[in-house]
Each structure stands twice: as C-alpha cells, then as structure tokens.
C-alpha cells in the first residue's frame, strides 16, 4: 500500500488486512518506517520486532502485525547465514549496523523487503502461514526506489548473498503474488503522485493493483444549479431569512462547493484514465475505529 | 503579515509545518507580496513545489540558482521576485566542491556511497535546504529570503536533520573506519582495531571486498571535509536564531497538523528561534454566520418534503456541512491557540481549487495580510 504522505496508507492497509482475514484466515500487516503507525491505529503500545496479534474477526480470522526494525532484520539475516551470535550483537553495540543501513539505504530496503518476502513465503506443516501479507509501504515519492531492490543493491554489492537475496526479493515483487495499491485523495498533489508512481512502477514491471480513492465525501448537490432568485423563494418557503447577505452567502457557498466538485470530477477522470481498477472509500466523520476499519474493508473488497 | 514584510529588519522568513499543509504555497505567496506590495528584493527558495505552481513561477530551468520571476505587478513598488527550486544532489555537490580540490571532488562524485547518500540519505534534503539558505544569505543580493521547508511528516525534521547528518558524518563508526588509516594502518586502541577487523570481515563476507574499498574511500574523502560541513551547518543555525529571522508555522486545522505545530512552537522556544506567527491554512468558514447547521438541515428536509425547492434544499445542506466543519476546525485549532495564546495567528480560507498561479498566490497573500 503506497500513496502520498497522509492520504491514508496505514488506515487502508489495516482495513485490507482485516478484510482478507475474514473467513478464518490469518494475515500479516507490516510496517517498515519505524513510525509505529499500526500500534497507534489499534490503540496499542509500541510494537516490538515480533509478529503480534492485533485484531480478530468474528469468524476466527486474525490480523498479526509486525514493525520491522532494519537493524534487527540485518542481525537476523546475518545470523541465518553466518551464525554470528555474540559478534553480531557487538557489531550492533558499536553502531556498525546502524551505520551500514544508514549509509546504504538500498541495503536497508533489501532487508525490509526481504523480511516481507520471508513472511509471505513462510510455511508450517507444508501450508503457508499467512493467507496474505499487507505492507504499509513508504510513500509514492520513494516507492519505486524501495521496491526496485536489485538496482539499488547492484550499485553497492556486486557479488555475495546480499545480491542473491535482492534478486529473490525482486523476483517475488514482480510476480503475480504481488500487487501494489495506491491510495490517493481527490486532490491535485496526491493524484499527480499517484499518476507518477504508477508510471514508475509500470516501468519497473511491478504489478499494480487498485487505485484507492480515500476519504471521499458524499455528493450534497443533486446537480441542479441554484440561482439567487430561487434561493430567495426557497428560503421564504422554509421560513428562513431572505436578506441579501443570507442569499448571497448561501449562493457563494453553493458555487464554491460546485467548483470543488468539478475539480474532484476531473481528478477522478484523470485517475480512471490510468486504466487500473478504482475503489472509493468514504470519509468517516467520527474518525477511524474498529467499526470504521470494517466498513472500509467491506468497501475495499466489495463485500458490503 | 504586512507588518512583518514592512519591517526591513526581517531578512529571512522560514515557513515550517508538517506535510501537505501549505508551506510551499505560503512561502510563494509571501514572497510575491513582499515584492509587489513592499518593494522588496525578494528570493524564494522552494522545495518540491507542485508542478503547476513551479511552471507559473517560471521554475523550469533546474540550475539550482534563483531566476527572476517575470510578469508580476511590482513596477510601482520597485520590488523584485526571484525564485528557485532546491536541487538536493547539486547542492551537496557544490558543498563538496567548495571544500576540496577538483581531483578529489571527481573521486568523491564517482563513489557509490556518495551517490547513495547525496540522493537518498534521510535528512539530506533538510541539510541541503539549510546549506542553500546559508549560500543565499552569504551572497547578500536580496533583502528578503523566504524559505520553504522539505515535505516531511514532522516539522521538527527541518531543525533536527542537519544535526543528525553531521553527527553521523562525525560519528563513532566513521572514526572507527578511519582509525587504521589515520594511524598508518595500526590503531593505538586494540579494541578498535579488533572491532574494525571484525566489521570489515563481516562486510566483506556479506557484501564483497569492493564495497569495503568504496566505503573506506568515501570515508577518507569525507574526513577532510567534516570540519567545514559542521561549521557551515552551525553558522546557518545561528542565522536562524538571529533577530533578522522570522519563523512562520503553517498548519491545517487537522489534529495531526495542529499537534505538530504545537511541538514545533515549543522547540523554537527552546532553541531561542523567533516564532512570528501561525498560519492556519485551508480553513473553512461559512458565509452566513447566523444560520446554524441544525436549522439549515431541518429547513432542507422540510423543503424536500414539500417539493419544488430542491436547489435551495441542496444549498442549505452544503451550508450545514460547512458550518459543522467550521465548528470542528475551530475546536481543533483551539488546541494550539490555548497552548500558545501569545502567538499571532492568521487564517487562510480553503480555496475551492488548488493554488497554482500568481493570481491564486495573491489571494492567499491578501488573506495572510488581513488585520
Ligand atoms: N476514510 C477515512 N475517513 C476518515 N479519516 C480517515 C480516513 N482515512 C484516513 N483517515 C485519517 O487520516 C489520517 C491519515 O491517515 P493515515 O495515517 O492512514 O495516513 P498515511 O498515509 O499512513 O499517513 P503517513 O504518510 O503519515 O504514514 C489519520 O488521522 C486517519 O485516521
Ligand atoms: N488555502 C488553500 N486552498 C486550497 N488549496 C490549497 C491552499 N493552500 C494550499 N493548497 C493546495 O494544497 C496542496 C499542498 O500545498 P503545498 O504544496 O503548499 O503544501 P506543502 O506543505 O508545501 O506540502 P509538502 O509537505 O508536500 O511540501 C497544493 O496543491 C496547493 O495548491
Ligand atoms: Mg502511515
Ligand atoms: Mg512543499
């Protein structure tokens, strides 16, 4: 799940993880930017680097959440291949891991996406542990670089296990198992970034899923254009004041609303032209609680 | 805003705030007004402006230096508007060039670590925005510099990122990596050597030997520039504390943005940086204060039942929704004004469409200057 900052990536990712857990499945909701957005959304304390149950569904499904810490992911990775043990911990203490993952952001990204791949393909009793893994990904401005792991690591690591690892991740990200959804609002900048990101991901051969138009408001106008004369008559019929200030004020408000709607409509057309499936989610005025997430999940998956 | 712009002692205005609240728009509107109405020779440093706004300001040439904006109405006032868009990588390159000889610089530019860091390091953009501000200030060609800040979730990043970057450039790991080189291959501290040996063995195993060579090359090259880097960042930080600087905090009337604004106001106080005011942007206000949401909605329902006045019913519903939104926004904004009652505040109405031309900027400028 990507999108411009603040458009609702975390909210929509959580709703999707919940929706996909329906039917008694287990899903994993992953965040990678160290913001503890999932914990905040579910009203929990900071999540450790550990898969934890954060929500259940009525039919026995569950959502687990994981906040990936790049340092710990690197240690885990090193341990898997090299059995470092105490030496690994010493490296961490010295700040070496922080250093390595900071100076080479591509390295950090391959660790983060590598962890997602591991969870996605993990099996127990010869069955996949997770029915689906939903990643609350970096925003549109960084998504191409983040998912294009091979290009970034190829610049730094020409041989060795990191290179192999990144090739495996890249293959998964370009397979039909992956789908990148883009969340947007009906505002100019988020729509522009959505268009740009989809172009970029297409160029990289990474499969794109839905365009999620979040926080839309229901139409208030039936479409008939109002005139000041009609307003005066209507207000009189309703027993409301018909002075000039009231009439011209209401007129100005209706006109501004219409302008806004027309702009939204043209942005909607621009999004539709991308040719991806589109889904619109309502603005939930009382904020995002569990019931709101369920509503969004039903809209997202068309199960309402 | 006019009071601030008329004060010739104010030579730098910094627009801060969390992501998407309108920092770039506000910065551009202020700079335009300063040039048109106050006759000031103004430069605005924008960061990642919306494409259409950039076009209207003539920001098509990406040469990382200000260009005069043509076609503004400044004949009478004698002001000028210059605008530029920050190019982060180029600014980093300029810093390198300023601190080292061309041969060394070429070597650094070719280093893959430098390439990664100058284009993707978290905080590089903030650091380079400060660097560019320092450069513009040093040129002394403008009597007002208006600075936009990078799009980040937290307004605090602008203040924190440069320190984080210089801490990093100056940090323990770098010194560790440099230790053998400095001591002619043998460090005085065996612990350091042992750790470094272990570090390099692991890096070599995982990433290959070439990477380590590149890394130490990068570190050694940077070593000669640390001092200069930090010094420049500190100088700019001091400019931000000076009386010639005014911080404007931009926020939208939404809980996250207001919370961020309050944090930021607190931080500015701690850093003794001058906060000139809060711009509450994209505010919704009704044009008919006397008509409540409830009454308006009830009337709409009634008209609909009776029939014949659907268009008025629609308009009344639009009004009801707007009135409710205005109440909600006031409540949200009060969290800031209650905590910082002494900070002046100005409201800018949400325009029906995005602001991407000079006319739109003038409208915002007018709103900013309401008494
Ligand atoms: N459909 C909706 N209705 C009402 N509020 C919403 C809706 N979607 C998101 N929000 C609210 O909008 C805000 C931003 O949402 P969220 O944190 O999911 O965005 P994000 O894209 O993850 O942001 P960031 O880029 O900061 O990570 C939150 O306060 C959230 O509760
Ligand atoms: N008062 C306003 N009314 C309507 N639209 C506005 C208003 N102010 C800003 N906008 C629009 O909101 C969008 C975001 O504004 P802007 O780019 O100035 O925000 P920003 O804080 O610089 O964002 P970022 O954090 O991404 O840099 C732009 O499309 C702009 O045209
Ligand atoms: Mg988020
Ligand atoms: Mg901006």
Largest beta sheet of chain B, briefly?
Answer: 8 strands, mixed
Of all chain pairs, the largest interface belongs to:
A-B, 70 and 64 residues
What class would the helix/strand composition of chain B place it in? alpha/beta
Query: N-to-C terminal Cα separation of chain A, in Å?
Result: 21 Å
CATH class term of chain A: Alpha Beta
Tally of alpha and pi helices of chain A: 13
Mean pLDDT of chain B: 87
Q: Segments of chain A where pLDDT lies below 50 for 5+ residues?
A: none
Beta content of chain B comes to: 5-15%
What is the oligomer described by this structure? heterodimer
Kindly report the spatial arrangement of strands forming the biggest sheet of chain B. Answer: 3-4-2-5-1-6-7-8
Distance between the termini of chain B: 8 Å
Number of helices of chain B: 16
Q: How big is the Rg of chain A?
A: 24 Å
CATH architecture of chain A: 3-Layer(aba) Sandwich
CATH class category label of the largest domain in chain B: Alpha Beta
Write up this protein.
- Chain A: This is ATPase.
- Chain A: Pfam families: ArsA_ATPase.
- Chain A: GO terms for molecular function: ATP binding; ATP hydrolysis activity.
- Chain A: InterPro entries: ArsA/GET3_ATPase-like, ATPase_ArsA/GET3, P-loop_NTPase.
- Chain A: Residues 1-154 form the ArsA/GET3 Anion-transporting ATPase-like domain.
- Chain A has 304 residues and is of the alpha/beta class.
- Chain A contains 13 helices and 10 strands.
- Chain A has helices at residues 9-21, 37-41, 70-82, 86-93, 96-103, 105-121, 140-147, 149-156, 161-173, 188-204, 228-237, 244-272, 290-301, and strands at 2-3, 26-31, 52-56, 62-67, 123-124, 127-128, 132-136, 180-184, 208-216, 278-282.
- In chain A, strand 5 and strand 6 form a beta hairpin.
- In chain A, helix 1 (9-21) crosses helix 13 (290-301), helix 7 (140-147) runs parallel beside helix 10 and helix 8 (149-156) runs antiparallel to helix 9 (161-173).
- The radius of gyration of chain A is 24 Å and the shape is elongated.
- Chain B folds into 3 domains: 2-168 and 240-284 and 333-368, Rossmann fold (3-Layer(aba) Sandwich), CATH 3.40.50.300; 170-225, no CATH class; 293-328.
- Chain B has 16 helices and 8 strands.
- In chain B, helix 4 (88-99) crosses helix 7 and helix 13 (255-270) packs parallel to helix 15.
- The radius of gyration of chain B is 26 Å and the shape is elongated.
- Chains A and B meet through helix 3, helix 4, helix 5, helix 6 and helix 8 of A and helix 6, helix 9, helix 10, helix 11 and helix 14 of B.
- The structure holds adenosine-5'-triphosphate (2 copies) and magnesium ion (MG) (2 copies).
- One adenosine-5'-triphosphate is lined by residues 3, 5-11, 37, 139, 214-215, 281, 283-284, 287-288 of chain A.
- The site of one adenosine-5'-triphosphate has 17 residues of chain A, from helix 1 and strand 9.
């Amino acid at each position: 799940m990507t999108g411009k900052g603040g458009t609702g990536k975390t909210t929509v990712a959580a709703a999707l993880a919940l929706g996909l857990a329906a039917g008694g499945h287990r899903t994993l909701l992953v965040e990678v930017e160290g913001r503890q957005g999932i914990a905040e959304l579910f009203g929990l304390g900071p999540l450790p680097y550990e898969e934890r149950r954060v929500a259940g569904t009525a039919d026995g499904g569950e959502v687990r959440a994981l906040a990936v810490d790049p340092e710990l992911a690197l240690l885990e990775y090193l341990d898997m291949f090299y059995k470092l043990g105490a030496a690994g911990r010493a490296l961490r203490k010295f700040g070496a891991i922080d250093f390595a993952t900071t100076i080479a952001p591509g390295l950090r990204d391959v660790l983060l996406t590598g962890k997602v791949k591991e969870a996605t393909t993990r099996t127990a009793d010869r069955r996949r542990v997770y029915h689906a893994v939903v990643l609350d990904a970096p925003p549109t401005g960084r998504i191409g670089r983040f998912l294009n792991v091979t290009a970034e690591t190829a610049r730094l690591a020409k041989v060795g296990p990191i290179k192999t690892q990144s090739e495996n991740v890249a293959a998964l990200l370009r397979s039909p198992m992956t789908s990148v959804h883009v969340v947007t609002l009906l505002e100019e900048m988020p729509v522009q970034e959505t268009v740009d990101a989809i172009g970029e991901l297409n160029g990289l051969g990474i499969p794109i899923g839905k365009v999620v138009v979040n926080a839309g408001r229901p139409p208030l106008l039936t479409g008939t254009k109002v005139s000041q004369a009609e307003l005066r008559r209507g207000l009189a019929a309703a027993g409301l004041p018909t002075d000039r200030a009231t009439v011209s004020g209401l007129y100005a408000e209706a006109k501004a609303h219409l302008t806004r709607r027309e702009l939204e409509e043209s942005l909607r057309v621009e999004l539709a032209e991308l040719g991806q499936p589109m889904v619109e989610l309502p603005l939930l005025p009382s904020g995002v609680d569990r019931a709101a997430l369920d509503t969004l999940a039903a809209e997202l998956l068309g199960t309402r | 805003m006019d009071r601030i712009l008329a004060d010739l002692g104010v030579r730098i205005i910094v627009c801060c705030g969390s992501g998407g609240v309108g920092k770039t728009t506000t910065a551009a509107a202020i700079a335009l007004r300063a040039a048109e109405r106050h006759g000031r020779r103004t430069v605005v440093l924008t960061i990642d402006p919306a494409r259409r706004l950039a076009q209207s300001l003539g920001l098509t040439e990406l040469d990382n230096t200000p260009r005069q904006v043509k076609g503004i109405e400044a004949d009478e006032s004698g002001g000028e508007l210059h605008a530029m868009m920050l190019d982060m990588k180029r600014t980093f390159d300029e810093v390198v060039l300023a601190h080292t000889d061309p041969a060394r610089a070429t070597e650094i530019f070719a280093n893959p670590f430098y390439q990664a860091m100058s284009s993707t390091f978290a905080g590089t953009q903030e650091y380079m925005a400060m660097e560019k501000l320092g450069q513009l200030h040093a040129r002394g060609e403008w009597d007002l510099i208006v600075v936009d800040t990078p799009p980040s979730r937290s307004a605090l990043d602008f203040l924190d990122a440069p320190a984080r970057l210089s801490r990093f450039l100056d940090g323990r790991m770098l010194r560790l990596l440099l230790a053998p080189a400095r001591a002619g291959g043998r460090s005085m501290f065996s612990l350091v050597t042992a750790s470094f040996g272990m570090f390099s063995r692991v890096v070599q195993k995982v990433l290959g030997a070439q990477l380590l060579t590149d890394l130490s090359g990068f570190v050694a090259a940077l070593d000669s520039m640390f001092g200069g880097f930090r010094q420049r960042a500190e100088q700019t930080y001091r400019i931000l504390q000076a009386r010639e600087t005014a911080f404007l905090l931009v926020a939208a009337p939404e809980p996250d943005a207001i919370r961020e604004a309050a944090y930021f106001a607190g931080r500015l106080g701690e850093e003794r940086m001058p906060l000139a005011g809060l711009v509450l942007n994209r505010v919704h206000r009704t044009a008919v204060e006397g008509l409540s949401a409830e009454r308006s909605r009830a009337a709409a329902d009634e008209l609909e039942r009776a029939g014949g006045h659907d268009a008025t019913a629609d308009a009344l519903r639009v009004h009801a929704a707007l009135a409710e939104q205005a109440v909600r926004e006031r409540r949200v904004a009060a969290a800031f004004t209650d905590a910082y009652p002494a900070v002046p505040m100005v409201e800018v109405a949400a325009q029906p469409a995005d602001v991407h031309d000079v006319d739109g900027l003038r409208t915002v400028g007018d709103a900013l200057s309401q008494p």
